[in-house]
């Protein structure tokens, strides 16, 4: 992938947020306020600040799961040289982390960021994974694509010093923890 053509950030915002509501919340997790702004607004701000192109997957009524959401986003950007798969519930992710994953796609065709030994997002894929990504369905996401890429040595594990790559919002307690983390930054 030429360094001059950046990958597209696919922001996944089609989930129903059922665990968040089951925890007593009255709003969708992506609309919940963190430091006075909706969770999704933080993710969109990081994408804009990165300077990378991005595409939001948020169809009316949701999708059949993360796999289908990824497939929709990749199909909507068929000419991209690669994709960064970013769930919309990671409000503390930094623009710098997005850029680091994008740059690392120059080294390997799949990039999995980590923070303190925890798998994070966005997971990056170069163009050669287009067919595998658009074939996804269900709720598992692209885990199977990453696993298949490991055997031939096509995966780069990228250590990042950004807790925002792992701090997602699934339950109301996660929102409180993110608020605390954001205040400490």
UniProtKB/TrEMBL annotation:
Domain MobA-like NTP transferase: 10-148
Keyword Nucleotidyltransferase listed: yes
Annotated signal peptide: none
Pfam families: NTP_transf_3 (PF12804)
Keywords: Magnesium, Nucleotidyltransferase, Transferase
Presence of the UniProt keyword Signal in the record: no
Molecular functions per Gene Ontology: nucleotidyltransferase activity
Annotated protein name in UniProt: CTP:molybdopterin cytidylyltransferase
Upper classification of the organism: Bacteria, Pseudomonadati, Pseudomonadota, Gammaproteobacteria, Enterobacterales
């Amino acid at each position: 992938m030429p360094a001059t053509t950046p990958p597209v950030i696919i922001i996944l915002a089609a989930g129903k947020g059922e665990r968040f509501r089951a925890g007593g919340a009255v709003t969708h997790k992506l609309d919940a306020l963190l430091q006075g702004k909706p969770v999704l607004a933080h993710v969109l701000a990081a994408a804009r600040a990165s300077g990378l192109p991005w595409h939001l997957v948020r169809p009316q009524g949701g999708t059949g799961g993360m796999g289908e959401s990824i497939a929709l986003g990749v199909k909507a950007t068929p000419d991209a040289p690669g994709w960064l798969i970013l769930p919309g519930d990671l409000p503390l992710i930094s623009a710098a982390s997005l850029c680091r994953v994008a740059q690392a796609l120059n080294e390997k065709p799949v990039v999995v960021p980590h923070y303190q030994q925890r798998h994070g997002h966005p997971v990056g894929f170069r163009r050669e994974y287009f067919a595998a990504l658009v074939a996804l369905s269900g709720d598992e996401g692209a885990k199977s694509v990453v696993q298949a890429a490991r055997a031939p040595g096509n995966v780069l594990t990228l250590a990042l010093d950004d807790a925002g790559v792992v701090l997602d919002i699934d339950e109301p307690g996660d929102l409180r923890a993110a608020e605390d983390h954001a205040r400490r930054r």
